[in-house]
Amino acid sequence: MILRPCLERLRPLLHFKNPLNTHYCSHTYAIDLEEETHTNLSESSDYRNAHQLFDENPERVSLNNHLLFEYSRNSLNEEALNLFVGIHRTGLLIDGSGLSCILKVSACLSDLIIGKQVHTLCIKSGYFDNVSVGTSLVDMYMKTENVDEGQKMFHEMEDKNVVTWTSLLSGYSCNKLVDRALQVFHIMLVCGVKPNAFTFTTVLGVLADKCAAEKGIQVHGMVIKCGFEVITSVGNSLINMYLKSRMVREATAVFEGMGNRNEVSWNGMIAGLVTNGLYSEALKLFHAMRVAGVELTRSIYVTAVKLCTNLKELVFARQLHGRVMKNAFYLDNNIRTALMVSYTKCGEMDDAIKLFSVMHKYRNVVSWTAMIGGYMQNHKPEQAANLFYQMKKDGIRPNDFTYSTILAAHPAISLFQVHAEVIKTKYQGSPTVGTALLDAYVKTGNTDEAAKVFEEIDEKDIIAWSAMLSGYAQKGDIEGAVRVFRQLVKNGVRPNEFTFSSLINACVTSMASVEQGKQFHGSAIKSGHSNALCVSSALVTMYAKRGNIESANEIFKRQPERDLVSWNSMISGYAQHGYGKKALKIFEEMRKRNLDVDNITFIGVISACTHAGLLNEGQKYFNMMVNDFHISPKMEIYSCMVDLYSRAGMLDKAIALINEMPFPAGAIVWRTLLAASRVHRNVELGKLAAENLISLQPQDSAAYVLLSNLYAATGDWQERAKVRKLMDVRKVKKEIGYSWIEVKNKTYSFMAGDVSHPLSDSIYMKLDELGGRLKDAGYQPDTNYVLHDVEDEHKEAILSRHSERLAIAFGLIATSPGIPIQIVKNLRVCGDCHTVIKLISKIEGRELIVRDSNRFHHFKAKVPLANGALADRPITEVASIISLQIILSVQSKRKKQRIFKLQISAESKDFTYGLRDRKAVILTDL
User: Fold this and answer.
1) Residue (of 172, 232, 180, 238) closest to 204 by Cα position
2) What is the pLDDT of residues 464-518, one digit of tens each?
3) 3-state secondary structure of 715
4) Which residues have CB under 8 Å from 185's CB, separation 6+?
5) DYW domain: from which residue to which, for each copy (predicted)?
6) Distance between CA 450 and CA 415 in Å, rounded?
7) 15-24, 404-413, 461-470: which range is least confident on average?
8) CA–CA separation, 314 and 308 (whole Å)
9) How many Cα atoms are found within 13 Å in the side-chain-facing hemisphere of 89?
């Protein structure tokens, strides 16, 4: 390092050695600055020259300080400390400026031991009350993370200036005590101390970390009043504060208003735009910087490469790489690592590997981790695992980010082995490592171990809470998910959009309460996250899968933006609810917008055609998928096509399609064909499908049951008995049919002939009453659906005790009239029950929704009501009985009440009803 010309005659001191002939090392010994007896000095010629120079110069103290300052300014901290020790041992005087300088050196070296010894020397030398020395002591203690001592020193000082206050404020900021820092700034203003430029720079940095935009605006006003807006460092801090608060417009205004911009200004603005996702704007600003002739620094290169990474601008990244190669920055590890990450993000792993290989001994944990992450992003977990083991073999110790990255490579790495390493290195309390670890356990289905990891995380952030909640949700443990959510709220953690997304996805399962999903929807609205894409998409899926396709459609229409999940959920939802044409309409809208589609999209489309009996449309969309979108059909698509042909009675086409498949047919295809064979009573085809299905899933009861039902339907009771006996021999148990109904947030389950419910007598009484009314309506039991060799009378009794009928009967007696009833069945609803439920909907005036293993069935008959039958009934009940449509809205002159017109039925006349005390009141006979 070249020193200033005015100090050229002090050059002999540049070679000054510690008289103890040792090198400074804070980890091996502490220098005794209180020693009164001086050691005999070395006779080296360098020292004699220096000593002679000091003897001849009357301003020794000033020269000492100049040299100390030069070392300090040029970051030669160890040299400065060695010089100070030597000066002290020679007995030469050291004034307050020299002590302040060496305290700064101690702070830069983070050496508390030296700092405390200098503190003692300050007291002995009588400089304790010196403002400069006291300020340096505050700064030293704060920078060595001894906050209490720094605070104590500050309070003991009688005289304080703006630098002293700023040192305390900066110390709190460096130690992440942002609230204390802001409090000090407030007290400083109350005490009448006028902030300087560095004070404002520090305070704005604190506000940036806290994203306190409102207070930042106030401080900005103070900056303008004090005239510091022209200082570049203050402007840079304002830009940083606004950008971290996502106030891009304000940051841009500050940037454009700066008279003197430096490299930090440009880099801060570009980096902030990148952080806020404004990549195009950042790229334009980078080009503007180049036009302005601003020299590219290391930090600007790193930011520019990160910009290329986010934009996946491979050509631009290579241009920057070439430019870096021409200057000394090529050896900068941060730049090379950034380039390596850019190549991996662009899928150019070969370029990344070449760059990594030439780094040799300059590789550090960051570059190793970047390469491991690159392999993971490019779906190469085996290579990532190999590199991880090579990294440890080379003696590089993984950090928390390394472990967080490699844990996603399971099962290419041993989860338990990495967990053990995490415990040994004491990273189990790290939020990032802990979250990655519990996520890995969740993916293996081990939520118990994930919960243990979760408890060990020291400071659980919202990401950790959401990961644990998501783990329970994925397993279908709605109670566990709700428990975690309640604990999260109790601990004062604010849920984000991903938390609500996981919760709502958990409510998709049949074991979750429908009302629970609605409650979480309400919570998402209150917290302002309901419009977030992941939340609204989850809501569309939940409502569609829980039988409320109207609500799903309303949310879908209100979505400010839609992803593929939303579109697919709506198509599949309409298909599952039997609204085939509506599903196809949604798909056609996707095509008009030129949106991407995938296999799941076409599963929904072809399923919609299947349920609606649209054979030609189904064939058209299948051909469109293959020929126009070039999507290779998966097993589920072929199953949908087999189902489409089978429902149309075209079993020959179905078997021909199976034979043309590019891979062996799976269980789902054979199960579909077997079910169709039973419906069409094609025994030979049914036997073929059953044999293939049993060979694939020998313990699945569906194949045996469907085949036995096929034999029963054709009257071949002997063959049916053989199938049942085979089930007994192979110990295959038939799945028991259950139906569930939710009433007042509680779920009740029923099986055929169930008498375990406390209201069992009332349920069967209701069934008997319905039986009489059904016969009056012309119902005749279809005993073909009873696949037992018994008398017809017994078959009728069996039909009347099916689980879905018990659930509906309970719903009728347990809910108020007019309230829709929804039940879920784990097996398919038989044809006779389908007929019965349709009639019950008509005679009871209820909307009935039945979700079986195949789809939703909606039964909503128009109810012919007597004139004025809705009078004095609760408006919620009225809305449930008929489709409430407000046609007319006026104000009565005599009484303030809302007036609306209700369409009772196609046969009856219209009545105008008003709303009084939440009940319908007849106003006028139109």
Assistant:
1) 238
2) 998 899 888 888 788 888 889 989 888 888 888 988 998 888 888 766 777 888 8
3) coil
4) 169, 195, 199, 203, 206
5) 778-861
6) 12
7) 15-24
8) 7
9) 20
Task: Report how far residue 391's alpha carbon sits from residue 389's, in angstroms, rounded to the nearest whole number.
Answer: 5
C-alpha torsion 586→592→598→599, nearest 10:
50
pLDDT tens-digit map of 622-647: 999 999 999 999 999 999 999 999 88
Question: Pairing relation of β-strands 911-916 and 738-743?
Answer: unpaired
CA atoms within 13 A on the CB side of 694: 17
304, 286 Cβ separation under 8 angstroms: yes
Kindly report the backbone phi and psi dihedral angles of residue 650, in degrees, each rounded to the nearest multiple of 5, phi listed first. -100, 65
Residue with tokens 């502490």: 30
Alpha-carbon span 97 to 100, nearest angstrom: 5
Q: Which residues neighbour 94 within 8 Å (Cβ) at sequence distance 6 or greater?
A: 61, 64, 84, 87, 88, 121, 125
Q: What percent of the chain has pLDDT over 70?
A: 83
Residue pair 641/622 in contact by the 8 Å Cβ criterion: yes
DSSP reduced 3-state for 547: coil
Name every residue whose Cβ is closer than 8 Å to that of residue 836 and which is 6 or more positions away in sequence: 774, 779, 805
List pLDDT tens digits, range 850-887: 988 888 888 886 544 444 554 555 554 455 444 443 33
Residue with tokens 């409430």: 884
Over residues 25-61, the pLDDT tens digits come to 433 333 444 443 333 333 334 433 444 444 444 455 5
Name 748's bridge partners: 741
Could you tell me which of 326, 327, 360, 316 has the C-alpha nearest to residue 338?
316
Q: Which residue has the higher pLDDT, 213 or 232?
A: 232
User: Which secondary-structure segment (H or E) carries 647?
Assistant: helix 635-647
> For the chain, how far is it from start to end, CA to CA, in angstroms?
101
Task: Name residue 3's amino acid.
Answer: L
In angstroms, the CA 229 to CA 222 distance is 9
Tell me the whole-structure pTM to 2 decimals: 0.65
Residue entry with tokens 């300059």: 362
* CA 591/CA 848 separation, integer angstroms: 34
Q: Is the pLDDT of residue 842 over 90?
A: no
